[in-house]
Fold these 2 entries.
Entry 1:
Amino acid sequence: MKKLSFFYLALFLIGNSVFAQDISLPAPDKKGGKTLMQALNERQSFRSYTDEGLTKQQMSDLLWAAWGINRTDQKKRTAASAMNYQEIDMYVALPTGLYLYIAESHSLKMINNKDLRKTTGTQGYVNNAALNLVFVADMGKAGKREGIKIDDSDLFMSYANAALIAQNVYLYCASAELGCIVRGSIPKEKLALEMGLKSNQYIILAQTVGHPRK
Ligand SMILES: Cc1cc2nc3c(=O)[nH]c(=O)nc-3n(C[C@H](O)[C@H](O)[C@H](O)COP(=O)(O)O)c2cc1C
């Protein structure tokens, strides 16, 4: 009996140590920032970044602005989504690992502990910028189980959905004096392998975020 409870205690501790690598975020600051018109005026793409990371508050504000829940009762989000499938999963490649943004708990779930920033792109600036977002369409959420044929017309809406999230990121970055750039240059096959994606999960776009080198 004693042996059995030790076994369950060990399992509990292992479970919690994995859980402990997830990142909990402070509440987003929904009152700060520049005016919308100022942010639009300053929106631009950057291709050179310093090594400096984002603070937890900046990360929280960025992810919420991008694709957070803004109507809790309906679980609806800061970006529109065709048919409200909400099939775009937002992954975050950080120096400490790859994470999946969980909107319900506004937290980051660790997927693996590899620094995949370099693998998210083909241009040099992706390597040292604070983070790279990867927008993945989980077609399972749009009724396409693994094994069902998926063609371009199925993904058409996902490209639009991801682009709306990317524009939110642009506006947040302009507002917070950060830099970003949305990217189609992604070694998709290699990255999908490193991310451990299923056959019905498609990489749509990536977006580099960090402190611009001016
Ligand atoms: C769908 C999409 C994909 C893009 N892919 C890349 C890319 O792979 N690499 C890159 O350097 N810029 C990329 N860009 C950024 C554009 O080159 C950039 O938006 C354009 O030059 C206009 O500059 P601005 O964003 O500063 O207004 C992409 C933009 C969009 C909308």
Entry 2:
Amino acid sequence: MKTKRNFAFVVLLFAALLVLSGYSLIQGNGWEAPPEADKLTNPLQNKVEAARSGKKLFSKNCVVCHGNQGEGNGMAAISLHPHPTNLVSPKVEAESDGAIFWKISTGRSPMPGYSSTLSEEKRWQLVSYIRTLQAK
Ligand code: HEC
């Protein structure tokens, strides 16, 4: 009787693991911005000079991890876990401006959050620049 229950438990455990690993495959690394973030819109949208300023900020603050073209292959990338995200991947491309802005602001280890070091305007400039990288 007891072995039967143990067996059922093991089967259940495997089923749960299978569901979880399938889920993480679909979701990538599973870092999702809260739904409210999607409501934020980029006040600098379509302003060419915003992306230009964003490029400078990106070189100074982000290239070391995310790489020159945002592909996640910066100098520090190999030593970091999780690896810096490829910002030109279809997954990130599909995210809203607000979600990307929220992630830049909040950060998640090993990536720092920039809400106290870069003004809101600068963080939107970065979003504008990331969109131009994705369009290439
Ligand atoms: C110390 C290395 C490091 C630096 C510097 C860094 N990042 Fe990251 N970034 C990461 C890592 C690692 C992740 C993945 C974090 C995770 O998924 O838990 C990430 C994730 C992101 C994401 C989320 C992608 C997504 O949608 O899932 C964005 C956007 C991003 N970084 C933008 C930036 C920008 C813009 C800068 C510069 C202002 C920057 N990062 C600086 C390491 C870094």
